[in-house]
Amino acid sequence: MPAPVRLPADIVQRLVDAGLDADHVHAVIHAALQEDRGGGVDVTSVAVVPADQRAVADVVARAAGVIAGLPIAAATFVVAGDDQVEVEFLAADGEQVPAGARLLTVSGPARSLLTAERTALNFLAHLSGIATATARWVAEIAGTGAVIRDTRKTTPGLRMLEKYAVRCGGGENHRMSLADAALIKDNHIMAAGGISEAFARVRAMFPEVPVEVECDTLPQVAEAVRAGAQLVLLDNMPPAMVRQAVAMVRDLGAAGRCRLEVSGGLTLAQARAVAETGVQYLAVGSITHSAPVLDVGLDFRAVGSGPPAVG
């Protein structure tokens, strides 16, 4: 089990403000650092860097993008440095930064900074990549009234962080877990013998839970709307069919009750055309499962002298 959270109050507050649980973040960081240490020590840094040497380093964006994960990266340096690392925030999550922008300044034992470097940058690069990809989608459909949402296609163990990065990019989160809402998909429909029966079973057992139904044909959309679905997922439908589904919901008198979400093979090039059909959401799995990392690095700019390492 991870040791108790040993994070400065300002970092904890930043995590709380981001909607993240500090204990969860600490556990993820602890596991990542343990993985990188491999049950031993950072043999390069222990051999090369004097034990009492201190350093000041900057975390720098090598490419332009939207930043996400600064409190997580900062916490990684602090945890690896056993509270001997100090952090100065020079940017904020959700901020669009140019290439070359300094994001954090960290100071403390040089060995600790080097040991934490890759883990901290992995978090920051990955989450900033998600935020940057999300921001591109959000910009593409600006003014349409539609919203970009994520999916559960996330890295196991990192869902809370990745969905936070989506929010930093201007997107919204779909359900965080299987317990948050019901999503009746094709296999559920087959198991129940139909949409209406599947919907009725969910509503009977979990009357307060929002229910979404996945549909790939217009007759299914009509059945889902009549059953009382609050959200219908239009799966792999071309824009022309999506427009028909929007009109169908309106004609059935459910426009204010039932929202529509489009999913399945969406590309950035077609995003605006889909958003302009009148749907409320575009569900984009690629913003989490396929976002390129944002290039970030760590540069030492001051190193204090110390005696040679022993052993």
TrEMBL record:
<dbReference type="InterPro" id="IPR013785">
    <property type="entry name" value="Aldolase_TIM"/>
</dbReference>
<protein>
    <recommendedName>
        <fullName>Nicotinate-nucleotide pyrophosphorylase [carboxylating]</fullName>
        <ecNumber>2.4.2.19</ecNumber>
    </recommendedName>
</protein>
<dbReference type="InterPro" id="IPR037128">
    <property type="entry name" value="Quinolinate_PRibosylTase_N_sf"/>
</dbReference>
<dbReference type="GO" id="GO:0009435">
    <property type="term" value="P:NAD+ biosynthetic process"/>
</dbReference>
<keyword id="KW-0328">Glycosyltransferase</keyword>
<comment type="similarity">
    <text>Belongs to the NadC/ModD family.</text>
</comment>
<dbReference type="Pfam" id="PF01729">
    <property type="entry name" value="QRPTase_C"/>
</dbReference>
<dbReference type="Pfam" id="PF02749">
    <property type="entry name" value="QRPTase_N"/>
</dbReference>
<feature type="domain" description="Quinolinate phosphoribosyl transferase C-terminal">
    <location>
        <begin position="130"/>
        <end position="299"/>
    </location>
</feature>
<comment type="function">
    <text>Involved in the catabolism of quinolinic acid (QA).</text>
</comment>
<feature type="domain" description="Quinolinate phosphoribosyl transferase N-terminal">
    <location>
        <begin position="42"/>
        <end position="128"/>
    </location>
</feature>
<dbReference type="GO" id="GO:0005737">
    <property type="term" value="C:cytoplasm"/>
</dbReference>
<comment type="pathway">
    <text>Cofactor biosynthesis; NAD(+) biosynthesis; nicotinate D-ribonucleotide from quinolinate: step 1/1.</text>
</comment>
<dbReference type="InterPro" id="IPR002638">
    <property type="entry name" value="Quinolinate_PRibosylTrfase_C"/>
</dbReference>
<dbReference type="InterPro" id="IPR004393">
    <property type="entry name" value="NadC"/>
</dbReference>
<comment type="subunit">
    <text>Hexamer formed by 3 homodimers.</text>
</comment>
<dbReference type="InterPro" id="IPR022412">
    <property type="entry name" value="Quinolinate_PRibosylTrfase_N"/>
</dbReference>
<keyword id="KW-0662">Pyridine nucleotide biosynthesis</keyword>
<dbReference type="GO" id="GO:0034213">
    <property type="term" value="P:quinolinate catabolic process"/>
</dbReference>
<dbReference type="InterPro" id="IPR027277">
    <property type="entry name" value="NadC/ModD"/>
</dbReference>
<dbReference type="GO" id="GO:0004514">
    <property type="term" value="F:nicotinate-nucleotide diphosphorylase (carboxylating) activity"/>
</dbReference>
<dbReference type="InterPro" id="IPR036068">
    <property type="entry name" value="Nicotinate_pribotase-like_C"/>
</dbReference>
<keyword id="KW-0808">Transferase</keyword>
